Amino acid sequence: MARLPRLVIPFQVHHIMQSGNDKQDVFRAEEDYLTYLDWLKTASAQFKVALHAYVLMPNHVHLLASPSDETGLARMMQWLGRHYVPWFNRKYQRSGTLWQGRFKASVIDADVYFLFCCRHLEMNPVRAGMASSIADYPWSSYAHHAGVKASSLITDHPLYWALGNTPFQREMEYQQLVQQAIASNLEEQIKQTLTKGWALGSERYVKNLEQRTARRVAPAKRGRPPKVKT
Fold first, then answer.
1. Contacts of 207 (CB under 8 A, 6+ apart)
2. Phi-psi region of 61 (alpha: psi -120 to 50; beta: other; left: phi over 0)
3. Secondary structure of the chain in the HEC alphabet?
4. Could you tell me the CA-to-CA distances from 44 to 17, 20, 149, 150, 183 in Å, in that order?
5. Which residues share a beta bridge with 226?
6. Contact, 100 vs 22, CB < 8 A?
7. pLDDT tens digits for 40-71?
8. Backbone angles phi, psi at 51, to 5 degrees
9. pLDDT tens across 117-164, in order?
């Protein structure tokens, strides 16, 4: 069966993940993280993609971003690859591919899931046992959202601004949100929709997307179809 084209909806939030080939590390030193972030900032501006949250893990990357058109997301990730991979290969005297195939992306119903996904991304190092607390890991957008260190890379989403009327109120509210556990079934839902490339949203959101795009954006419901009365 032919693979469906990646679902990209302008001005909607997308959860993006790109992994190292065969789970190999794509960041080995502080310079690698800094170089990738610098090029990510350049690429996001060049292709008009608003970056709302990120986490860089040693062997993969998660982003939350809103493209302004249907091609900007792919062009941003391709541009990053064309710059970061040759630089990385030269530095470590290696050759060949660095990333595992094409990046994965899932459109998100921001009104319901945006803040959950932000926390899911930024808590990744804690879940992986790489940090004892979310504030201890330097390669995520948490420091920006918590008011520790502002980042020019981040474009704050309106739902983040809605957390408070002042920067201090927003930062304190976000810090409190992060302390709240995310239900395991929601964590799994976020992972599965990203892996499969499905939309993450309410039934109404999914239905509207399917009408708008004339394609399936979520898995079909299991079970036999209802009988049609004649």
1. none
2. beta
3. CCCCCCCCCCCCEEEEEEEEHHHCCCCCCHHHHHHHHHHHHHHHHHCCEEEEEEEEECCEEEEEEEECCCCHHHHHHHHHHHHHHHHHHHHCCCCCCCECCCCEEEEECHHHHHHHHHHHHHCHHHHCCCCCCHHHCCCECHHHHCCCCCCCCCCCCHHHHCCCCCHHHHHHHHHHHHCCCCCHHHHHHHHHHHHHCCCECCHHHHHHHHHHHCCCCCCCCCCCCCCCCC
4. 15, 21, 20, 17, 32
5. none
6. yes
7. 999 999 999 999 999 999 999 999 999 999 99
8. -95, 125
9. 999 999 999 999 999 999 999 999 999 999 999 999 999 999 999 999
Distance CA 217, CA 165 (A): 35
The amino acid at residue 53 is A
Other beta carbons within 10 angstroms of residue 83's beta carbon come to 17
> Tokens standing for 62?
């998660």
Which position has the token pair 């809103």?
A: 66
- CA dist 148 and 16 (Å) reads 25
Angle formed at CA 23 by CA 21 and CA 28, multiple of 5 degrees:
95
CB-based contact 189:200 (threshold 8 Å): yes
In whole angstroms, give the CA distance from residue 134 to residue 123: 6
pTM of the model: 0.91
Q: Which residues partner with 50 through β-bridges?
A: 66
Rounded CA-CA distance 97/207 in Å is 38
Task: Provide the 10 A C-beta neighbour count for residue 200.
Answer: 27
Token pair in block for residue 123: 């808590």
Phi first, then psi: give them for residue 172, nearest 5 degrees: -65, -40
Are 67 and 10 within 8 A, CB to CB?
yes
